[in-house]
Amino acid sequence: MTKGSLHLQQTPLYDHHRLLCARIGDVDGWKLPVAYGSQIEEHYAVRGDAGMFDMSHMCVVDLHGPDVRIVLGKLLANDVGKLKTPGKALYSCMLNMSGGVIDDLVVYYLGEQHFRVVLNAQTAVGDIAWIRSKIDEAKGEVTVVPRRQDWPAEAVEPLAVIAVQGPKAREKVLRAIPAARPAEKLKPFNSIMVHDPEVGELMVARTGKTGEDGFELLPLARHAGRIWDMLRSAGIDAVGHAAWDTLRLEAGVHRNGKDMDHLTSPLDAGLGWSVDLDSDRDFFGKSAVCARRQTQQFVGLALEGSAAVPPAHSTVTGDEGAVIGKVTSATYSPTLRIAIALARVAPEVRIGSCVNVEVYGNKIAARVVRTPFVRSGT
C-alpha cells in the first residue's frame, strides 16, 4: 500500500480485492488493486480471454429535467443531438472557456429528461461544480445527482462500475448474469437497463477503453460484491489498474491529466473527431478552439527494439536534433514486447518517419505510427 493511503477512498469492492491478496495502490485518490499477481499475465488475460476491473472510482452522474438536453448541448463539445435512441452513448470532451479539456466523458441517453454521464475520478468534483455553475447561469431546470458512494447522501442509491473486457467477455458476462441476457445483441456504444431480484437495477453498456470488446456494468453499490462473485464464478479473471494502463495505451486511448488537460486543445490531443465545429451549435469553449486551431498532431511512437519506457514529458527530436514534440504517456507493451508512447508532435512530422525519444538522458530511436497499436488482440 502506498504512503498516505490511509486517507484514500475505498470502493464497494475493496474487501474483495483484499481477499484476493491484491497489491493495493493509490489510483486517482482511491485504494484500488494495482495487480493481483503478474501484471503481464493479467494483461494477456484481457487480450486472450476476459478480465474485469473495478472502475467504481469513476463518478456516475444522473442529470434530470426538462432542460437537460439543452444544457448538455452547451456543456459538451460533441453533439448530444445525436442521441435519440434510449441507451445510446456518446464520447465527448467538456471544455473550459479557453478551449482546454476539463474532462473527457461518456454520456448516455436514458430518456428525454434523463441523461447519465460517467466522469473521470480525479476531475469529478471540479466537473460537477462546473456543470452546476453553468446550469445556474443558464437558469436551466436540471437536477444533478452524483451516484458515487463518497458523495453526500442523495435520494438515489450510489452505483459501482465493473468493466469486463476481452474477446470472451460478453459471452461470459451473459452466462454469469442471467438478467443481462437482453444485452446479447447490444451494439457498441449502446446500453440497456435491466433488473433482477438478486442484484436490483443494473446498467449494461457495450463500452470500454482496452481495445477489446466487452461490457461496463453499473450495479447498485450494495450489490457490487454479488456481481463480482458471479463474474468470478464464470471464469473471469480480476485485473488490476497497472494492466488497465498498458491495455489502454496499446489501444491508443487517452487518459485525462496525462494525454490532455485543462490547457490542452482537443484538436492538439487528437480528439478533433469528437468536437462539433461544423454545425451552428455553440458550446462552452467553441470560439476559443476555433481561434486556437490545431498546432500539434497526436501520434503513437513505437520504440522498436527497445523496452526502455520514456517518462511523461520526454522530448521528441528529429534527425537534426531539433525538439519536435513531447511524450504524454508511455509503457512497455506486453503484446508488442517493445516500449510504446503517445505524443504530441509538430504537424509536419510524417507517419512512418523516424524520430528520437529522450529516455533518462539517452536518445532512443522510435517510429511514428498511427494509433491504436493493438486492437482486438492484433
Key attributes of the depicted protein:
378 residues; 6-stranded mixed beta sheet; alpha+beta; Gyrase A, domain 2; 20% helix
What does this 3D model show about the protein?
The chain has 8 helices and 20 strands. Helix 2 (39-48) packs across helix 7 (241-250). It is globular. Among the domains are: 5-56 and 159-249, Gyrase A, domain 2; 296-378, Aminomethyltransferase beta-barrel domains (Elongation Factor Tu (Ef-tu), domain 3, Beta Barrel), CATH 2.40.30. 46% of the residues are buried. The strands form 4 sheets. A 6-stranded mixed beta sheet has the order 11-12-13-10-4-14, with helices on both faces. The protein is 20% helix and 31% strand. With 378 residues, the protein is α+β, with helices and mostly antiparallel strands. Strand 2 (23-27) and strand 3 (30-35) form a beta hairpin. The mean pLDDT is 95.
Per CATH, the superfamily of the domain at 5-56 and 159-249 is Probable tRNA modification gtpase trme, domain 1
Report how far the terminal alpha carbons are from each other: 34 Å
Largest sheet: 6 strands, mixed
> β content, as a range?
25-35%
Provide the CATH topology of the domain at 5-56 and 159-249: Gyrase A, domain 2
What's the architecture of the domain at 5-56 and 159-249, going by CATH? 2-Layer Sandwich
- Helices and strands, in order, run as EHEEHEEHEEEHEEHEEEHEHHEEEEEE
Helix fraction? 10-25%
How many helices does DSSP assign? 8
Strand arrangement across the biggest beta sheet: 11-12-13-10-4-14
Uncertain regions spanning at least 5 consecutive residues: none
Q: Tell me, what is the CATH class of the domain at 5-56 and 159-249?
A: Alpha Beta
Question: What would you call the structural class?
Answer: alpha+beta
Which shape, going by the Cα principal axes? globular
What would you call the quaternary organization? Answer: single chain
Mean pLDDT: 95
* Radius of gyration of CA atoms, rounded to a whole number: 21 Å
Counting DSSP E segments of at least 2 residues, the number of strands comes to: 20
